[in-house]
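The aim of this short unit is practical: by the end, you should be able to scan a pair of folded records and say something sensible about each. We start with the first protein, listed as its amino acid sequence and then its structure tokens.
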Amino acid sequence: MTEAEQQTLEERLAALEAERDEHLNDLKRVAADFENYRKRVARDQESLVARAHERLVKELLPVLDGLERAIDASRDTGTRSVEEGVRLVHQELQAALQREGLAEIETNGRFDPHVHEALLSQPSDAEEGSVLEVVQKGYKLGDRVVRPARVVVAAPQEADGDR
């Protein structure tokens, strides 16, 4: 084999190796793109499921509120059998919603605008900004606020000269 033929073969080999490397890089890029696509689709699907759960929970919250009002009303009228029946339904519904990830928003302590909605502020001896009363319970589904807790917040006491 002549030196010119050997050089031609080496050039051809180098060109084929470069082409192979280019195809290998293309294949790696396609594999990475596919993996990113797969992860994005999985995230989108999880988000869709979470939104479906949130919609269901929002629809069921008024039922939970109504059952709580029925329990309170039956306590006042003294009808224990109705109260017990409603209490059992309330507990079952509450347990089902908890299994779906629903949690009541904590209302003890300071007002938090991220999870509480202040309906009014009321002068009080309590620390300014603390929650005095819960008008309507708030709920979270996972880490998302489904409905903020509606609360009455402590305001500073008025001085005698302010009246």
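Turning to the second protein, read its sequence before its tokens, just as you did above.
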Amino acid sequence: MKYHWYQVFVGALICFLIMGLTTTVLAAQGVDNSLYAGLIEKYVKDGVVNYQGFKNEESVLDKYLKVLEEVDSKTLSRNEQFAFNINAYNAWTIKLILTGYPGVKSIKDLGSFFSSPWKKKICRIDGKIITLDDIEHNILRPRFKDPRVHFAINCAAKSCPPLRSEPYHGGELDQQLDEMASAFINDPSRNRLEGNTLYVSKIFDWFEEDFSGDIPGFFLKYAKGDLKKNLERQREDIKIKYLDYDWSLNGK
């Protein structure tokens, strides 16, 4: 059977449109986080991580990491990209801990004199093998410029903001980030106001520029109850002091 040139052209055009529509639909759907959701729902309670549970189902975690590896994040919306990289950071951090578990007492145990654990090339994303530092400092912070990210990513230490028991999703990301920031700010075991001295996590020291150099101002956005009232009353006289950071493992 012979085909006229216009039939070939129309056929090719239809294929092109179908491929484009498929890509658009996949991008709109985001990433399949169901495997990860099942794991963290079972093994993360109030920010405490059951690493033995993760170890028992490490093959499931590996399957999820493979899902992330096969995602072309450029096809995702901005919020889905943001959520994708947060989930990738947290999932790969768990995987890093499992490489030394149960012998690891702190994520720092997995580094060396010459290199920190955050500089290990373990994360397979967008066709590259990168580090946790790359995700945080070369993608999340500069690309999205949202200080709330510091309360969403988890470094497996007790002083880190708690690991959320559900994945982050682009469609509800703003609400999720607000919830994590608010929970951290209003947790007296992590930050507290005594007189006119605001004792805060070292996170605010390490990343002061991300908070526009105005830590009390950031606190006021999320503080509640007495903390908010006292901050407003003392606003002009607030002094900042940084608390020690507990790097011991956030496990049970």
